[in-house]
Amino acid sequence: MIAYLILIVATGAERVVELVISARNAKTAFAQGGREFGIRHFPWMVALHTGLLLACLAEAWFGERPFLPWLGWPMFAFVMLSQALRYWCIVSLGPQWNTRVIVVPGLQLVSRGPYRWLRHPNYLAVVVEGFALPLVHSAWMTAIAFTVLNAVLFLGFRIPVENRALAFLADARPAQ
């Protein structure tokens, strides 16, 4: 359980680093005339991701969930792969990466890194982490709850908002 606590705390610390990077990139984007989309769903997204970390610990501890090596180690590998994908996205987008949906007119869509193959690769990382992180310590109820709530949030709100923002970006580009 101590190792799982360390993993969850490290994941939380990583989220804080992401928020620092995001705030820096948002400041730059707004200074360049960036426009934000989907402001209303962002607090729900923060709550869901914070809730994931707390629920992982609560279910593992209070539900007395065991660490099952046959499940825990593969799920840990998925967590690490999701983190690698997340940082590949951050590096690929550079200063355009943000936890918020901010577009700067005139900037081109990024088509390097994982964006060569997927339109929303960071969301793949979120989906994988969302089921894998709880299952590292057999917190199956948290894995199910996060997966369902995340699907509602992302499919119902976040991805449509991003698609509208990308359409705005395309419309804002000068004609060639």
Characterize the structure shown.
The chain is mostly helical and 176 residues long. It has one domain (2-171): Four Helix Bundle (Hemerythrin (Met), subunit A) (Up-down Bundle), CATH 1.20.120. Helices cover 70% and strands 3% of the residues. It is built from five helices and two strands; from the N terminus they run H-E-H-H-E-H-H. Helix 2 runs antiparallel to helix 5 (140-172), helix 3 packs antiparallel against helix 4 (121-135) and helix 4 packs antiparallel against helix 5. The protein is elongated. The mean pLDDT is 92.
**In the CATH classification, which architecture applies?**
Up-down Bundle
CATH class: Mainly Alpha
Distance between the termini: 59 Å
The value of Rg in angstroms is: 17 Å
- The helix-strand sequence is HEHHEHH
**Count of β-strands:** 2
Strand content: under 5%
Assembly type of the chains comes to single chain
Low-confidence stretches: none
On the 0 to 100 scale, the average pLDDT is 92
**How many DSSP H or I helices?**
5
The domain count comes to 1
- The proportion of residues forming helix, as a percent range, comes to over 70%
Q: Give me the secondary-structure category.
A: mainly alpha
What's the CATH topology name?
A: Four Helix Bundle (Hemerythrin (Met), subunit A)
Summarize the main sheet.
2 strands, antiparallel
